[in-house]
Structures are given as structure tokens and as C-alpha cells.
Design brief:
Length: 348
């Protein structure tokens, strides 16, 4: 990993240079919640001033720029006793500025499933390869538990990652692209003092996290507590709305359907994100539903996050961003469920 020191004015100039040629997406303040909390969203920006790099979190993750809620996979048309098919991938370069470490870690997890598995998704790959990521370090956000999962730091998966040292940024470079970007502006070598300031800034950030959740036992506990009343208690609250999965930066379940014109002359194959919390998620041909109960669906969502993914990739799928907790109208949240599982409950 290479490190450079980037002045704040130079960073601004870099973003302005990028804006001149590319779509730039970043955290933009869009509203204020009832409790006074600012609401941010990753949106295309027109100027550096639109970016609010001091944001705490966004309600919706940046997953949508890699795995949109709905996308057309292919379109076909019959004409003159022949047919044609169109398949297109996004090739336009995009820059995302201001991703936090947990969200970059989330992309690394999506990469494992969508970019490196036996059947990589060319749609995902096209977006991932054509997106420049400039991440930024930040203090803990409320409801987040990334430190418990080790996702509060990131060492790859980005082009540049900035740590605020007050009057300048400590910039980690993780790609040729990131290196080339820094050639566009003035930077300097990181001195011993810069490195010491960076380590001190990291120490302050880590110290600001509350006590960690004990995550090591969770994968085993998931099996041991398979019939725990914890699932029923939390499941009874679940509205099966799927908001948690939609905002989650690592949930990728989807369905594919064909939409055909009434005269059968054309059609499109559409992919749409889906969620394991929705009533018919496990319904199969013939109508049998393997998970008709809310608590079972909720349980399996947590199983995928903390047991199933672990089994395949040796790490949990959850990055502890806390978005599912913030969006859930029923107050269902991973830290409380994990604490309840760790505490254990008498079976009836
Ligand atoms: S856990 Fe909360 S957000 Fe998720 S489906 Fe249930 S009610 Fe909706
Ligand atoms: S499960 Fe919740 S806390 Fe974990 S990554 Fe998804 S949204 Fe974030």
C-alpha cells in the first residue's frame, strides 16, 4: 500500500476535475428527520459543495450503484420471422466519493458472490470495474457495530481511502487508478509526523467505539439456538416489509421475471432485488411455502448473515453498518438479537 499526503484544497480540486468528466456520486444531505438527525443519501452531485463528507451514515447504502433495485438483463424482439436480443452492461465511468470502511467491506463481500464465484455477474462486474471508489474514515455512527465485526477499517477494495488529519488527508492508494488520480493534483510524501498523526487519528476513532459485541461464538450459537424462543419473540414483531434487506449493503437476493408484450412480439428479462423476509420468498412451484412463519424468515436472514456466509467464505456477511436497525419500524436490530442469543433463553 502506498500513502500520500493530500491537502484539502487539492482534494477539492481533484473532485472538481473528476466532476468535469465523470458522474460523481457522494453523500448529499437531503432532509432532516423528526428528531433533528440529518438525512443523507448517496446521490450524483454537481459540485464539491454538494458533498457532505462529515455525514454519519446514509439510510440507503451505495449498493444501488452496483446492484440496482431493478435492472433489465436483456430485451428481445421478433420481427420478419427472425428475432434479435439486446444485452448491455453499464460502461460509463462513475466515481463514488465518501464511502465509509464498512461500505467498502460490504462491496468486498458482494465481490465474493457476484464477481468471483463460478458464475460472475457481468452486470455487477461492469459497474464495479467502472466505478472509482474514494473512501473516507469517520467516527463511529449511532447504531453501527462495525468494530465488533472488524469492518471499521479497510485495506483493499478502493482506489483511494482518506483519513482526515485536520488540515490534510492521509491518502491510502490501493490501485493504479488511484495512483494516477493523485498525479492530477499536488501531493507529498507521508513524513514520519504524518504517519504518527494518522495512527493517533485511528486510535481516537477506535477509542470512540462502545464495547464490542462478542461475535466469535455467533456462528456456532446460530446452530445451538436454532429453536430458541428468541426467534419467536423477535419474529412476532416483524412486519415482513423487507426494508432491512433493501437498505443492507450486502443483501443481494433477487428474482428474475420475463415481461412479454401482449402480442408476443417483444419482451424483457428483468431482475429485481427480493428479500428473505417477504412472505413468499421460499414458495416453490406447486405453492408450498417452506417458510410461512415470520420468525422462520427472520431467523434465516440472520443465519445467512452470520452462519451461511461464514461457512462458505469464513467471514460474516454483515458489516455492522446499522442501517437495518435504523429503518426497521418494528425496532428489530442485530445487536439486540445477538445479545439475546448470547444471553440464552429458556425453551418453553
Ligand atoms: S426485520 Fe424490520 S425491516 Fe426487516 S422485514 Fe421485519 S419489520 Fe421489516
Ligand atoms: S444486516 Fe444490518 S447491520 Fe448488517 S450489513 Fe446489513 S444492514 Fe448493515
Amino acid at each position: 500500500m502506498l500513502f500520500r499526503i493530500l491537502g484539502k484544497d487539492e482534494f477539492r480540486r481533484l473532485v472538481e476535475l473528476l466532476l468535469a468528466e465523470h458522474e460523481v456520486v457522494g453523500p448529499k444531505r437531503i432532509d432532516t428527520a423528526g428528531d433533528g438527525r440529518p438525512i443523507h443519501q448517496f446521490l450524483p452531485v454537481d459540485s464539491f459543495a454538494d458533498l457532505d463528507l462529515g455525514y454519519e451514515s446514509t439510510d440507503i447504502s451505495a449498493k444501488t450503484y452496483f446492484l440496482p433495485f431493478r435492472e433489465t438483463l436483456s430485451a428481445w424482439r421478433f420481427r420478419d420471422r427472425d428475432w434479435t436480443q439486446e444485452i448491455s452492461y453499464r460502461r460509463h465511468p462513475r466515481v463514488i466519493v465518501g464511502l465509509h470502511a464498512c461500505d467498502i467491506n460490504a462491496l468486498l463481500k458482494l465481490d465474493k458472490v457476484l464477481a468471483r464465484d463460478c458464475f460472475p455477474s457481468p452486470y455487477y462486474l461492469a459497474r464495479r470495474k467502472n466505478t472509482v471508489i474514494i473512501g473516507i474514515d469517520h467516527p463511529p455512527c449511532s447504531g453501527g457495530f462495525c468494530h465488533s465485526l472488524g469492518t471499521d477499517t479497510v485495506t483493499r477494495g478502493f482506489d483511494l481511502f482518506l483519513t482526515d488529519l485536520g488540515d490534510r488527508y492521509f491518502a491510502a492508494i490501493d490501485s493504479d487508478r488511484g495512483f494516477s488520480l493523485l498525479q492530477l493534483v499536488a501531493t507529498s510524501e507521508a513524513t514520519d509526523q504524518d504517519s504518527a498523526d494518522y495512527l493517533a487519528a485511528r486510535k481516537r476513532t477506535v477509542a470512540a467505539f462502545g464495547p464490542d459485541l462478542e461475535m466469535k461464538e455467533i456462528p456456532n450459537l446460530m446452530d445451538i439456538e436454532f429453536d430458541s424462543p428468541v426467534w419467536q419473540r423477535w419474529g412476532e414483531k416483524c412486519l415482513s416489509c423487507s426494508s432491512c434487506a433493501m437498505v443492507c449493503p450486502t443483501c443481494y437476493c433477487y428474482g428474475v421475471q420475463e415481461e412479454v408484450a401482449m402480442d408476443f412480439s417483444s419482451g424483457v428479462k428483468v431482475k429485481q432485488l427480493y428479500s428473505c423476509c417477504i412472505f413468499d420468498f421460499a414458495t416453490v412451484a406447486g405453492g408450498h411455502n417452506f417458510r410461512p412463519r415470520r420468525e422462520t424468515r427472520l431467523k434465516y436472514r440472520y443465519y445467512h448473515q452470520h452462519r451461511g456466509f461464514m461457512e462458505i467464505f469464513d467471514e460474516p456477511k454483515c458489516v455492522g453498518c446499522g442501517r437495518c436497525s435504523r429503518v426497521c419500524l418494528a425496532g428489530i436490530n442485530p445487536p439486540d438479537i445477538i445479545r439475546d442469543l448470547l444471553a440464552g433463553e429458556e425453551r418453553p
